[in-house]
Amino acid sequence: MRIIHVNGVPEGSMGRAEISIPFIDASKINTGKVWFYAEISEENQKTSNVIFKGKLKGSVNDGIFKSTLNLKNVKLWHFDDPNLYKINVVMYEGKTAKDELSTVFGFRSIKVENNRYILNGEPVRLIGMEWTAGENMEMGLAQTKENIDKGLTLMKNANCVFARCHWQQSDYFFDWCDRHGILVMEEVPLWGWETPLNDTLLPVAMRHLDEMIDAHYNHPSIIIWGLGNELDSHKETNIKGLDAMEKHARNLDPSRIVAYISNAVQWKGLEVPDASPRYDMIMYNEYNTTWYGNNLDSIPVALDRIHDMYPDKPVTISEWGICEPRFTGGDERRATEMAEQIKIYSSKDYVAGAVYFCLNDYRTHMGEDSLHKYPVRVHGICDINLNKKDSYDVMKEISSPLVISDVIVEGNQVSMTIECRDAIPSYTVRNYYILADDTRIDIRKMSPGQKINIDFTTSAFDLVIYRPTGFEVLRIGIK
């Protein structure tokens, strides 16, 4: 067996596990004698129940064994409830065990519908940020597990539930996202206006898709395969190449979203329409206040122009932010503008999500900052050593699914209003809770737009709201 691919499909209270096992050398497999025994168990859950144990029914075609299991009472994967399962498969020839493999997967569905991402049947508007590996001074792109842990923990504690990666990441990165709950867009690293999708680069891009999807197919955190970033996407040869890539990606994996990221989709009056709206979701790199030479007032105009041209496709803001020192104003401007921009994006119902650029400053040959002996782009809410800037706290606040208001404190009696945000972000919260010293207050399930009042007694000076996974949502001083 070369690998095990599992597509976990939710079906009400049940789940369908679509299993594919390609062979290293199918010519050496005696299909008349080969059979497979599998065991599926809960992986990272409070229990370790075995939900299937037995022989897999299926057949071998074109060198791949395929089997489908219908399973009862499966727990779905969600960024606030990242339930995983482990499948172990033993291949037998007659009575002799010939090979054994295992992998981890989850039951999760994703699609785009009615201007929203639909996660496990629930409409959501997502917020997150770009993962820009390469900041580590000693390792560079060869990141350590400790460095990945630190960066992703910073993202999750800033209420990031959606990450974009310009290029492929390690299995360790995706395993972290699987286990802690971050949705991910993983991309083929095609970038730049001068990059042509010609007969030299297109086969390379196809190979990238082959290897990326084959290696990372089982990770439920991955919801989007990205085709490239900021090409000349009004050029017919590039559009033809992107169309071929999209078709190939869907043939390899029809269960996920496919998208291309554009910085030219807002252009009007061109003979050839932009490539991004040809796929599941328009991905728009929104730099109107910086690279595009405009101001905040130009953003709703640009967004409405996109929607007018392509009314049947929702938009995700795939990048926004401030690159220093190319643009002035520093972190104060970064914090101020991000708060205003998310309000603008939220006001447009056709905007389904937003990904901030980026977590941290990073080394790059494109860097404009020369303070160090290497060029750096000062673009993050953390510095190059992953120390938080002031804008980190602003990002955390605007990314919170909950808003606290009307806090009244009289002695040890506390009263407050909690609202589930109906903007960007927007999703149902379940099993969130408040800690105030040793006092725990459970927050009941809340839908976007819903408000509740909570009264409790505490002598604490501050309180913290947590996700069910233990990550911070908000920290509030009350005395």
From TrEMBL:
EC number: 3.2.1.23
One GO process term, biological-process aspect: carbohydrate metabolic process
Residues making up the signal peptide according to the UniProt record: none
All residue ranges annotated as the Glycoside hydrolase family 2 immunoglobulin-like beta-sandwich domain in the record: 15-108
GO function term, MF aspect, one: beta-galactosidase activity
Stored Gene3D superfamilies: Glycosidases (3.20.20.80), Immunoglobulins (2.60.40.10)
First-tier enzyme category under EC: hydrolase
Residues of the Glycoside hydrolase family 2 catalytic domain: 110-345
Classification via SUPFAM superfamilies: (Trans)glycosidases (SSF51445), beta-Galactosidase/glucuronidase domain (SSF49303)
Protein name (Swiss-Prot/TrEMBL): Beta-galactosidase
Native species: bioreactor metagenome
Higher taxonomy: unclassified sequences, metagenomes, ecological metagenomes
